[in-house]
Amino acid sequence: MLATAIAEKNAYAVALENFDLAANALELEENIRAMIKYPERILTVSIPVRMDTGKVVRFEGYRVQHSTQRGPAKGGIRYHPNVTIDEVKALATWMTWKCAVVNIPYGGGKGGITCNPKEMSQGELERMTRRYASAILPIIGPSKDIPAPDVYTTPQIMAWIMDTYSMNLGYPVTGVVTGKPIALGGSLGRNEATARGCFYTTRGSLEHLNIPLQGARVVVQGFGNAGSIAAILFHEAGGKVIACSDTRGCICNANGLDIPAVVEFKKATGSVAGFPGADWLKPEELLALDCEVLIPAALENAITEENAAAVHARIVAEAANGPVTPEADRIFDQQGIFLIPDILCNAGGVTVSYFEWVQDENHLFWDENDVNAKLEKIMVRSFNDVLKIHLDKRVNMRLAANMLGVSRVAEACRLRGLYP
Ligand code: NAD
């Protein structure tokens, strides 16, 4: 693991702190706070898996439904050695505000298994996934809670969950998960959606700050689904991606990396490390590069009070969930760095997941241009909604986005009249 990896900061504490800041700014009544702040349902499951050696290993898995005030719970499933119940609670909480910011009819949920998928065979992964799906089956479903991919989970893994659920019900239920393969009711454009949303909101931020996109220097931490596709989009739009990284290394070229070649290199070797025609960097040097746009697209707590002052970007676009801590936010405010908060910046993924679910439930599929056009409309509108609060209320973009998300959930709660 690289040195910048995760400082020990409890993501759930960050999620609660950000909620309190938004609730205070909105002067939200205590009764509503009590109703919407904490997860509605938390499930921990034991997942015994027969490994290829014949030995049975027990994994622990989670599914958290933070909110169903505005619709069914919605959120990804993460397979990672650092998954904890608090991390899943934090990610579920962020999903609630995120779905409300882009105004799609979902609450928030998240799931995860503490495991190292990189060390597991396909057979082991499939058995673990199916057992996990069975264990959480009573609380998921197209009208209850709809999982999706997150870190180290794939369309294939979603297909296994869909199949396990359908086998139990006795008929195909494609709408139980999103991020599925296209052949099983997946949506065109879903794979690129998170990165597209990041691109649209960053483009809006560049315009707002009067910085040309042409030639804008972009740095990407984390070259997975979100990060690598964001790099391609900026490259295609005339930006200059000068550095990127994954768990094995960071590469840099001040004249701009040949991103399609980096993508091919990573496909062939499993990493960006060793890409010819680029210099090596230390992880802390990558985050400190002079650039117009820094995109943390790996995991939580990449930028903390320890390294925030070293950041020399005009815009930080949070493609990852929770990469910048509240202390780092305050340092960015002092430095005049414009932050696009995660619940806005990476909301393109859940938005196209919503489109996928709508298509599945209606058995009618859209072409890719349709998906992308609808996504762009929602992302541009949501960016402008948050920017307006930022400017009108003179609060930073994180607080503005949280205020928008929390106020919409509070309004739903008030209208439902769910007081005890
Ligand atoms: P992914 O598994 O496809 O990619 C993660 C990448 O980050 C990998 O390349 C990995 O090597 C790299 N990485 C991990 N730790 C790193 C470190 N310390 N330094 C540098 N690189 C590191 O995952 P993803 O789907 O792209 O998700 C990345 C982030 O985006 C997560 O926070 C996730 O919650 C968020 N996100 C993803 C989606 C989506 O649709 N995929 C949607 C919303 C948010």
Structure description:
The protein has 420 residues and is an alpha/beta fold. Helix content is 46%, strand content 18%. The chain has helices at 11-26, 30-36, 85-101, 122-136, 155-169, 190-208, 225-236, 259-269, 283-287, 326-335, 342-345, 348-362, 368-393, 397-416, and strands at residues 41-50, 56-67, 73-80, 108-114, 145-149, 217-221, 240-246, 249-252, 279-281, 290-296, 312-317, 338-340. It has a 7-stranded mixed sheet, with helices on both faces. Strands 1-2-4-3-5 form a 5-stranded mixed sheet. Helix 7 (225-236) links the parallel strand 6 (217-221) and strand 7. The longest helix is centred in the C-terminal third of the chain and has 26 residues, at 368-393. The chain starts with 10 loop residues before the first helix and ends with a helix. Nicotinamide-adenine-dinucleotide is lined by residues 2, 4-5, 149-152, 194, 221-227, 245-247, 283, 297-299, 319-321, 346, 349.
Give the topology.
Elements: H1 11-26, H2 30-36, E1 41-50, E2 56-67, E3 73-80, H3 85-101, E4 108-114, H4 122-136, E5 145-149, H5 155-169, H6 190-208, E6 217-221, H7 225-236, E7 240-246, E8 249-252, H8 259-269, E9 279-281, H9 283-287, E10 290-296, E11 312-317, H10 326-335, E12 338-340, H11 342-345, H12 348-362, H13 368-393, H14 397-416
Parallel strand pairs: 3-4, 3-5, 6-7, 6-10, 10-11, 11-12
Antiparallel strand pairs: 1-2, 2-4, 7-8, 8-9
The structure holds nicotinamide-adenine-dinucleotide (NAD).
